[in-house]
Write a structure and sequence with these properties.
The protein is built from one helix and 28 strands. A four-stranded antiparallel β-sheet has the order 1-28-27-26, with no helix packed on it.
């Protein structure tokens, strides 16, 4: 296994920060709860307003450079693809997204062709002095839309209110209050693999060959082709999200409650602490490696929003 890394701060940026990712060319993309920004070397590009597409979760970039965040898609030129009004009309037309439902989460397939939407049923308020009416059926429904936001299918079966990330295979990863699970895309109610009751965060490597999950004090790494656990280690302290894994699966970064980031090196199933990005006293909500693994980005939504870029080099 190679040696330790020097983790050196390159620059600190202010702007939309809450989610962070690099595109295939190594350009930084960030998002907060209402917008997405593509960055130049030191300054942000135009801010794309996505407030009407909330909630925003699951920031990713398709191979053609389209930004995938929540139910929105943003083209490289900043054009928001799809029609929010059509999205809402689709729901009303199918008696799903009426007043009794709210959007709980959304995630695009890696090619940006299908959108998986989870809708949480709201329990109606009962008049004062009367018992509340229990909702019928599952509390969460999953719907599949195409890139034009048309209904493709409505899978049967209960699901979990969670943020999810879809794999290229017939699997999607769900994280909820019940933990981490891999579920069937064709039958979301069926858990098929990878149940971790105590998981609090997870990340997929670009190319989706590796999945990293964080439990209290422990980190697990699986291959996604056969769900073989290839590494597990105790971090020696309580861990908080976020977590990130490099494109080659050789580096894992995990945040801790203080705002520091531990970087671990993986090799043939063994793990060793390689370096640390120091705490800035801010809560971190996202981490990302550049495609070449030479840079690490951290994001914090506190104040104006903070993004810090670190260089990673062998000692």
């Amino acid at each position: 296994m190679q040696g330790t890394l020097v983790v050196e701060s390159l620059r600190v940026l202010q702007g939309a920060a809450g989610l962070v990712v690099f595109d295939r060319d190594g350009r930084l993309i960030t998002a907060d709860d209402r917008s997405v920004v593509r960055w130049g070397d030191t300054a942000p590009g135009p801010r794309v307003d996505l407030a009407r597409w909330k909630p925003l979760s699951g920031l990713d970039v398709a191979d053609d450079g389209t930004v995938l965040v929540g139910a929105a898609r943003v083209a490289p030129d900043g054009t928001v693809l799809g029609d929010r009004a059509a999205f809402k009309a689709f729901g009303a037309g199918n008696s799903v997204m009426g007043d009794s439902y709210r959007l709980a989460g959304a995630g695009w397939t890696p090619d940006g062709a299908e959108l998986w939407v989870s809708l949480e049923k709201l329990i109606p308020r009962a008049p004062r002095g009367e018992p509340a009416e229990e909702p019928e059926g599952p509390s969460v429904r999953y719907l599949v839309l195409d890139a034009q936001l048309r209904l493709v299918r409505e899978p049967a079966g209960p699901g979990l209110t969670a943020w999810q990330k879809v794999l290229a295979t017939d699997r999607w990863i769900v994280l909820s209050g019940g933990g981490l699970a891999a579920q069937s895309r064709s039958d979301p109610g069926r858990v098929v693999e990878l149940v971790r009751a105590g998981a609090s965060a997870f990340a997929l490597a670009p190319g989706r060959r590796f999945l990293v999950a964080v439990e209290t004090g422990a980190v697990h790494v699986w291959r996604t082709d056969d769900w073989t656990e290839v590494a597990r280690w105790d971090a020696g302290q309580p861990l908080a999200s976020p977590v990130a894994v490099s494109a080659d699966g050789g580096l894992v970064a995990v945040g801790d409650p203080s705002g520091a980031v531990e970087v671990w090196r993986l090799d043939a199933g063994a793990a060793a602490r390689a370096g640390q990005a120091p705490s800035r006293g801010r809560q971190l909500t996202a981490l990302a490696f550049s495609p070449d693994g030479a840079r690490l980005a951290t994001a914090s939504p506190e104040g104006p929003g903070w993004i810090e870029l670190f260089a990673l080099r062998a000692r």
